[in-house]
Amino acid sequence: MDKSLITVTSPVLPDLGELNEYLKKIWDAKWITNGGQFHQELEKALAEYLCVPFISLFTNGTLPLITALQAMRITGEVITTPYSFVATTHAIWWNGCKPVFVDVLPETGCIDPNKIEAAITPKTTAIMPVPVYGKPCDMEAIQTIADKYGLKVIYDAAHAFGVKVNGVSPCAEGDMATLSFHATKVFNTVEGGALVCHDEATKKRIDYLKNFGISDETTVIAPGINSKMDEVRSAIGLINLKYVDECIEARHQVAIKYREALCNVEGVTFWDDMPGVKHNYSYFPIFIDAKKYGEMRDELYFRMKASNVLGRRYFYPLISTFSTYRSLPSASPENLPVATRMANEVICLPMHHQLKDEDILRVLELVVK
Ligand code: T4K
């Protein structure tokens, strides 16, 4: 059997010697978590890389979502997209708020701003859009609506590390933005994440909340959680950050090869780069129109799987179909026709910086008929 071709990527770390040096320093310092030296260095390095004012590191990409809502005291209803990883909506649920699903744009998979206003009620307090696959949302339109109705905007930018729109990271937009540094992301710390905010007082509040709400030895300001990134993972982040641009460029080259080979395949569509956008090529979704392609999406998916080419159907099933959410009025498929179609047609092809030409060929031999 051929080796598996996975969808995304494993940690970068080209040189374990580098990690050993960091580990030695951590062991010597005898300070292994709770805001150590490498934690501080990584926050500073990421703020510079992303050009964002303040960033707080977390143990994963889910807890900053939950903490963002808590930090801003979001209540009532939160407008969001069903076309994402389930963590996005779970964060709303964990804050005791009601998710309200709005359909997405077929051009990007991101929330459709033209449909947001109709979903706003007197209980709406926030919008949580997702630049899915790193494709930027229509941030200007979203902000205009948020300003008109006095709503907060929290971007779940888990996929958008390294993306820039006219030179600006989507993480710098809205009131807050979150990132995931999970092993499968363009930039990873094995598990990890971050929360971006825009002023020092908010950063302080976030840092308390991610440390149980402790502000000093005898004071707890709120029921916070433990989501501090440790020194080992901070060190891995510092190392991986050096190579992230190289990795993004390698992914870009894979995307070029996929696009060249797939552009004339009947029934297969994919997205091109958007003008003014620096993409991160975090995923390579293709959409299968079964009538034109002559095969259902799942037939192709399982045919690939049988050959050990492990594409993923991100994001199928839609979040709105899961048992916790499916009874919400906004979860009905009639309300979400674009997202429903995309979820039924999508396969994300293997996409990471270590894919070789022969690997790409193996994928293409299965998709191109
Ligand atoms: N918001 C959004 C929009 C997100 O997409 C995510 C996470 C979050 C929030 C929450 O962030 P975190 O709390 O996770 O930091 C994966 C990831 O676990 C998850 O981080 C990611 N999004 C989601 C889209 O994908 P699974 O259940 O599909 O993972 P799994 O184990 O099936 O692995 C996927 C592929 O990656 C496989 O082909 C194998 C490969 N892989 C996996 C691991 C664990 C590796 O190559 N190396 C590895 O170490 O959720």
Automatic annotation (TrEMBL):
InterPro entries: DegT/StrS_aminotransferase, PyrdxlP-dep_Trfase, PyrdxlP-dep_Trfase_major, PyrdxlP-dep_Trfase_small. GO terms for biological process: polysaccharide biosynthetic process. It holds the Pfam family DegT_DnrJ_EryC1. SUPFAM superfamilies: PLP-dependent transferases. GO terms for molecular function: pyridoxal phosphate binding; transaminase activity. The active site is at K185 (proton acceptor). Keywords: Aminotransferase, Pyridoxal phosphate, Transferase. The modification N6-(pyridoxal phosphate)lysine is found at K185. The keyword Lipoprotein does not apply. PANTHER family: PROTEIN RV3402C, TRANSAMINASE. Belongs to the DegT/DnrJ/EryC1 family. This is DegT/DnrJ/EryC1/StrS family aminotransferase. It comes from Bacteroides intestinalis.
